[in-house]
């Protein structure tokens, strides 16, 4: 990585705190950062890297603070960004909030953390749970354990030694979120799956886990996030809307919802959120299934269907009075949002073939696998 120094700047670019790790650059080079940044922003350049002479400024912004790493070597920029974001996470877990005041109130602790997380420009322990075992703060008194916990020097730093559970289990969740954007004329503008495999492990000792999957997906370098190879997917819940507006009188909605997945699956806790005019009143609803509720605080009708089996189609009608509106700006109509969760189902077709648990003592362990498909950013524009 080879970061020479790390700085935290306030909104005006003033250095709140910094740490020189390599001593190979003049620390005053940070004075040029804010003018260079303003110049780049005026040009419309939003790249989070600024090269000036032989110095590279690699930065991220959190709230009104800038976290900046400087380097004069050919640094691994991706690792630098990862380190800066990890630093934000560490500070948030220590201080609950990251702002100028919390920086000033915790100078001593922050310097100690900066010493622990990096050595001569190379990241060291960045797991906040491990750091909190030996870098602690009781009121205004900084306490540092006489020796770091064994986890710091383990081959696997994030797991403590001699862990033992009465019942050895592994819970594996395959979660897929469907993002969808449909135009007012019914064309699918965006359709994608974002998948994640999450594990909760209650296993004694230090076992080896081997996970086998089918070949439906392609894993990215992050390890637990995957992408669907076949691209666009069929919308799981399709919503059509017919809206009739009568000036100075009323507005009527006819909403049709159809589940476009296999009949043996069921979507739970479906919410179809339909936007309505801000001054609508006197709501009346009629639906073939579920219940409707007017939410004036969000200017919307929420149609809730607790259980929505595959291959079904339902209708909902809503009527509102409009006491004052003459015409509505068509361009400003918010889209319909849909929320849902389908257990025991994946859109991509990914399956866990096996989960092998190998441990030298040979104990028996139970693996539990659960599949869930849910909405992500799921929007259908209205006519």
UniProtKB/TrEMBL annotation:
Keywords assigned by UniProt, alphabetized: Membrane, Protein transport, Transport
Cellular compartment(s): Endomembrane system
Residues covered by the MHD domain: 167-381
Gene3D superfamilies linked: 3.30.450.60, Mu homology domain, subdomain B
One matching Pfam family: Clat_adaptor_s
PROSITE patterns on file: MHD (PS51072)
Family note: Belongs to the adaptor complexes medium subunit family.
Protein known as: MHD domain-containing protein
């Amino acid at each position: 990585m080879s970061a020479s120094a790390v700085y935290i700047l306030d909104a005006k670019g003033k250095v709140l705190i910094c740490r020189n790790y390599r001593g190979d650059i003049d620390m005053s080079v940070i004075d040029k950062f804010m003018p260079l940044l303003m110049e780049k922003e005026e040009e419309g350049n939003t790249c989070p890297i600024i090269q000036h002479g032989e110095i590279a400024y690699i930065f991220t912004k959190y709230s009104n603070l800038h976290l900046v790493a400087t380097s004069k070597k050919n640094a691994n920029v991706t690792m630098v960004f990862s380190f800066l974001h990890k630093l934000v996470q560490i500070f948030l877990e220590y201080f609950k909030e990251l702002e100028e005041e919390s920086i000033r109130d915790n100078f001593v602790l922050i310097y100690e953390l900066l010493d622990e997380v990096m050595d001569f420009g190379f990241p060291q322990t960045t797991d906040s749970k491990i750091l909190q075992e030996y870098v602690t703060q009781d009121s205004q008194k900084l306490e540092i354990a006489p020796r770091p916990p064994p986890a710091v020097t383990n081959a696997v730093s994030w797991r403590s030694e001699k862990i033992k559970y009465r019942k050895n289990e592994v819970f594996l969740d395959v979660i897929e979120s469907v993002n969808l954007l449909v135009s007012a004329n019914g064309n699918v503008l965006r359709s994608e799956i974002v998948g994640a495999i999450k594990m909760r492990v209650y296993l004694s000792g230090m076992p080896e886990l081997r996970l086998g999957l089918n070949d439906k997906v392609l894993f990215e370098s992050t390890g637990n996030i995957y992408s669907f190879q076949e691209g666009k997917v069929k919308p799981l819940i399709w919503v059509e809307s017919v809206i009739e507006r009568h000036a100075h009188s009323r507005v009527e909605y006819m909403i049709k919802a159809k589940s476009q997945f296999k009949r043996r699956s069921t979507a739970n806790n479906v919410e179809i959120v339909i936007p309505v005019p801000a001054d609508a009143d006197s709501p009346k609803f009629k639906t073939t299934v579920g219940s409707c509720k007017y939410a004036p605080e969000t200017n919307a009708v929420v149609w809730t269907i607790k259980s929505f089996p595959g291959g079904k189609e339902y209708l909902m009608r809503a009527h509102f009075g409009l006491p004052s509106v003459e015409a509505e700006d068509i361009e400003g109509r918010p889209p319909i949002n849909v929320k849902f969760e389908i257990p025991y189902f994946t859109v991509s077709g990914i399956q866990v073939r096996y989960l092998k648990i190998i441990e030298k003592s040979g104990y028996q362990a139970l693996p539990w696998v659960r599949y869930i498909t849910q909405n992500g950013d799921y929007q259908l524009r209205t006519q």
